[in-house]
Structures are given as C-alpha cells and as structure tokens.
C-alpha cells in the first residue's frame, strides 16, 4: 500500500564547477505540475543568461509521474543523472533544476553526466529528507444527537477535519491516513444514522 512517501522539507541549492563551467542546482518540494511550471519559469527568468536549464521531477506517492529535460545538452547527459539522484534517495513530489554556465571547455558526455549528478546531489545533501503520509478524504454525515460518538472516534483516531456544518444534520470532511481508512470507515459505519463516503479526488 502506498501510504507513505519520502520528499524534501524545503528549497535548497547546490553547486559544482569543472573546467570553467559552473553548475547551479536547485531543489524544490512540489505537489503539482502547475507548481513545477512556475518554479521553472522563475529559474529561467532569474538565470536568463545561463546556457542550459536542465531538470527532472517526480510526483505522487506511486512515483509513476516523472519527466527529464536535457535542454540542449547531449541526450541523456543531464536530465537522467538528475533524476538518478531523485531515484537513489527514493524521493517524490520534488523538482531538481541544474543551471549551467558554460566555461568554454567541452566536458564530453561522461563529464556532463558527472557534473549534473554532482550538482544535483549537492543540493539534496543540503536539504532535509522527510516522510509524508498519504491521506484519503471522507465525507461524514450524521444527526446532531450522534455528535459525542462521532467526536470520540475523531479523537481516538487523531483525525483532522474541515468544512464542518453543525446543525440538526451535521457534516464533516475528514482527512484519514490511507493505512487507517478501512478501519475508520468501519467504525463510523457502526454509529446509527451515520453515513460515511470516500471523496474521489
């Protein structure tokens, strides 16, 4: 079950220099392709005079969504080694960008692979790795009379809730750790007049 994944805590930077070329690396925790596009646009604007803006990203707890970009470098010499650093640390919801300032000396494919890998690794080494839980969203509907029973379960399972409506008929949106979803679903279903349903996102 994919209910945990590893990512980075914050934005960090790294650097690698070889034969006059300078490789600046930037690591970002991200949660969507829109966020990735914005980060890339900001980097390109800030480092508009750089020769290459190469990157790799991976999204989702299943780690199935990813992309690499060599941005004009020889195929497989930039994006892949950057992604390799993400994979070797088993990370997701992350964007790694390496910006290159050309120093006038060609490094060859092997040299480029080493440079992009080293810069990316340096940025990750300067970050903090974190484990994140994957949550399900559930809608809970119940009569006000069942409030105590409902609140007891929320407290027992340490659940967060949002969009609450407390009236004669009440409703809540719960965030439930995937690992506990079936159990929580079962327990709330036992409360008379309580209806619980999974919200598909």
Write a structural description.
The chain is an alpha+beta fold. It folds into 2 domains: 129 residues, Impact, N-terminal domain (Ribosomal Protein S5, domain 2, 2-Layer Sandwich); 66 residues, 2-Layer Sandwich (Alpha-Beta Plaits), CATH 3.30.70. Helices cover 30% and strands 38% of the residues. The protein contains 5 helices and 11 strands, in the order βββαββαβαββαββαβ. Strand 2 and strand 3 form a beta hairpin. Helix 2 runs parallel beside helix 3. The longest helix has 18 residues. The chain is elongated, with a radius of gyration of 23 Å. The protein starts with a strand and ends with a strand. The model has no long low-confidence stretch (mean pLDDT 94).
The description of the largest β-sheet is: 5 strands, antiparallel
Secondary-structure class: alpha+beta
The number of helical segments is: 5
Lateral arrangement of strands in the main beta sheet = 2-3-6-4-5
The top level CATH class name of the largest domain: Alpha Beta
Measured between the Cα atoms of the first and last residue, the distance is 18 Å
Helix content: 25-40%
Overall pLDDT metric: 94
Which H/E pattern describes the elements?
EEEHEEHEHEEHEEHE
Strand content: 35-45%
Q: Return the CATH topology of the largest domain.
A: Ribosomal Protein S5, domain 2
CATH architecture of the largest domain: 2-Layer Sandwich
* Estimated radius of gyration: 23 Å
Total count of domains = 2
Low-confidence stretches: none
Write out the CATH superfamily name of the largest domain: Impact, N-terminal domain
DSSP summary, beta strand count: 11
Q: Please tell me what the overall shape is.
A: elongated
């Amino acid at each position: 079950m994919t209910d945990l994944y590893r990512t980075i805590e914050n934005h960090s930077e790294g650097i690698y220099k070889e034969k006059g070329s300078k490789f600046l690396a930037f690591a970002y925790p991200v949660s969507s392709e829109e966020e990735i596009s914005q980060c890339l646009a900001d980097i390109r604007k800030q480092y508009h005079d750089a020769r290459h803006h190469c990157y790799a990203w991976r999204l989702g707890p299943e780690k199935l969504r990813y992309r690499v970009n060599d941005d004009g470098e020889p195929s497989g010499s930039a994006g892949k080694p950057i992604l390799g650093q993400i994979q070797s640390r088993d990370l997701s919801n992350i964007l790694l960008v390496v910006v290159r300032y050309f120093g006038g000396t060609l490094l060859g494919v092997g040299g480029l692979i080493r440079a992009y890998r080293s810069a990316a690794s340096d940025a990750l080494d300067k970050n903090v790795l974190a484990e994140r839980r994957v949550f399900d969203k559930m809608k809970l509907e119940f009569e006000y009379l069942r409030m105590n029973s409902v609140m007891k379960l929320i407290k027992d399972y340490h659940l967060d809730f949002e969009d609450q409506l407390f009236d004669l008929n009440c409703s809540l949106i719960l965030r439930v750790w995937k690992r506990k979803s079936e159990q929580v679903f079962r327990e709330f279903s036992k409360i008379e007049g309580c209806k619980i349903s999974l919200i598909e996102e």
